[in-house]
Amino acid sequence: MAASVAEYLVHQLVAAGVSRIYGIVGDSLNPVVDAVRRTDGITWVNVRHEEAAAFAAAGEAEMTGSLAVCAGSCGPGNLHLINGLYDANRSRLPVLAIASHIPSAEIGTQFFQETHPDRLFTEASVYSEMIGTAAQVPRVTRTAIQHALTAPGVAVLTLPGDVADQEIDDDGAPILIPGACPARVVPNAEDVAALAEAINDAKKVTLFVGAGARGAHDVVLELADLAAAPVGHSLRGKEVIQYDNPFDVGMSGLLGYGACQDAMEGADLLVLVGTDFPYTAFLPSDVRTAQIDIDASHLGRRTRLDLPVHGDVGETMRLLIPQIRRKRSRKFLDSMVKKHGGLMTKVVGAYTKNVEKTKPIHPEFAAVVLDEAAAEDAVFTVDTGMNNVWAARYLTPNGRRRVIGSFLHGSMANALPQAIGAAFADRDRQVVAMSGDGGLSMLLGELITLRHYDLPVKVVVFNNSSLGMIKLEMLVEGLPSHATDSPAVDYRQVALALDIPAVQVEDPKDLRKAMTDGLRRPGPALIEVLTDGNALSIPPSITSGQIRGFATAMTKQVLGGGMGEVMAMARSNLRNIPRP
C-alpha cells in the first residue's frame, strides 16, 4: 500500500501521540495540511503568526510533557518560527517543527523565498535535518521524534513540497518504536559522601533550588530540615519548591525579594539544587559552593564550584539524606526566615496595602487580586518584563498551579501564545495570560485565535502604556528613559470588536469584582487593568553603581525639563516604603 510522504509523516505524529499541529497553511506546506485533513485523530490549529505557533506548541509541551508540533511554510513562513523554537529549546521542551522548503530542484539557485532551514535552525534545536527522498522518512522522522522527547528539546524536519508529495512504500510495519522511560541518573557515591561531609561540617547552610528539583519537593525540604537550611529559589524553581515550605526565604536575581540574597551571602556552604541560575552577580563568590544537577555541563559554569554532584536531584537526596546529621543550632535558619517574613510584610507587602483608593492602580495590587481570584489549579503564562516581577512576587504556588514564561530566553509576547497551547492541552483548566501591553500588542492577532477556537483563556492586561522593565534598565545605567512609552490603547475595545467579553479597570475599588467575574466567564475574556507606568521593581541587592545610575538619570531628567516626571516616579515608588 502506497502513501505520500506527507501522509506517512502525519501518521507517525499520530502514533507519537500528537493531536494537533500549530501553524499557518501555505504553498509548500499544503501536502502536509491536506494529510492532516484526511487523518483521524489530528487537527490543524490556524494561528495568525508562526511565532505564536511555536510558542503555543511549547506551552502545550510544558503542560503535558509530550511531543507538540508546529509548522511553517517555506522561507518567511518557517523563519517566523525561530523565536518560539529558540525559547522551547532553551526550556528543554519536546517540540517538533516542520519547516517546509522550496522545490528540491531549485535549492541552491536563489529561488523565490529560498532559505536553508536545516542550517538556520541548528542553533535553536537538538536535531535539524532535511528530508530529500521518500526513503529517508521512516527513520529520519522517528529519529527527530526521539531527539525531541529524550534530549529533550526542539527537533526540526525540513521538507521540500515536492518531496512531501512523493509516494512511499508502506508495508504495514509499526511506524514508531515505543518510547523508553527516562533513565535514572544516580550520582557517584564518593561525590555524595563529600557533600554530606561538607553539610555536616558547615555551621550555616543555604539551599538555592531551581526547576531541576521538580518532583523532589518533599526530599529537598527533608534535607533543609536536617541541615537547618533556609531555602531560596530561582524564578523557574518557584512553583517547584515554594509551596508548603517553612524554610522559604524567597527569590534572588533581578526579580528577587525577601531574604534569599542574605541567606546565600551569609552561609558558609551554598548548595545549588537543580538550577543553572545565570546571574553571577547574585551568586556569592566568597562562599563555598556545591551544585547538584542532572546535566553535567551545568556544573560550575555560573559561579565557583567546590563540590560537584552529577545526578538527578531526587536520586541524590535519596543517597544524601541518610548521611546527614541533624543540626542542633537553628539560629541561622530562624533568623533568615524571620527576616524574610519582615521583608515580605514591610517591603513587598507594603505596595499592596492601603492602595484601594490610589490611582493609577498599583500593578502589585492588581497581581495580588489576580492571585486571590484565580483557581487553585490555574495555569499562568507570564509576559517577559515587569509582569515577571509581579508574578515572581505575588503569585502563590500550591503544588497544583503552573507558572509558565519565557524565563530562559526572555522573549516578549510569549504569554498569549503559550496560553493558547496550554488551553488546547486542557480545556477544563483555568488558563490566565498575564500580558503586558507591550507584549500583547506584538502578537495582538492571536486574540483572533482565541475567538476562532473559543479557547477559555483569560487575558489579564497590565496596561501601563510603557516598557517598564526597559525603563528600569535605562535608569540603572544612568540614562533617562527614552522611547519606552507608547500611546494609550483601549484593549477592551479591541477585544470587544473581536466578540471577546472584556472590561477595563481604572478605579482600584472595581478591580476585585472585575477580576473575579472575568475569570469565571466561559470561553475567552480580557481584563484590562490601567496600571501606574512609573511603578518600578527594586532588586534585592542594590549596588552603589545602580544608585549612582538612578541619581544620574534623575538629574538628566530634571535638567531636561522633566521635573514633573521625576516627582511622579518618586511618588509611585516611595510612598509605600515603610517608615521605621
How would you summarize this macromolecular structure in one to three sentences?
The chain has 580 residues and is an alpha/beta fold. The protein is built from 24 helices and 20 strands.
How would you explain this protein's 3D organization?
Helix content is 39%, strand content 16%. It is an alpha/beta fold. It folds into three domains: 2-169, Thiamin diphosphate (ThDP)-binding fold, Pyr/PP domains (Rossmann fold, 3-Layer(aba) Sandwich), CATH 3.40.50.970; 189-343, TPP-binding domain (Rossmann fold); 353-574, Rossmann fold, CATH 3.40.50.970. It has a six-stranded parallel beta sheet, with helices on both faces. Helix 15 crosses helix 16 (386-394). The radius of gyration is 25 Å and the shape is globular. Mean pLDDT is 89; it is low at 553-580. Keywords: Pyruvate, Thiamine pyrophosphate.
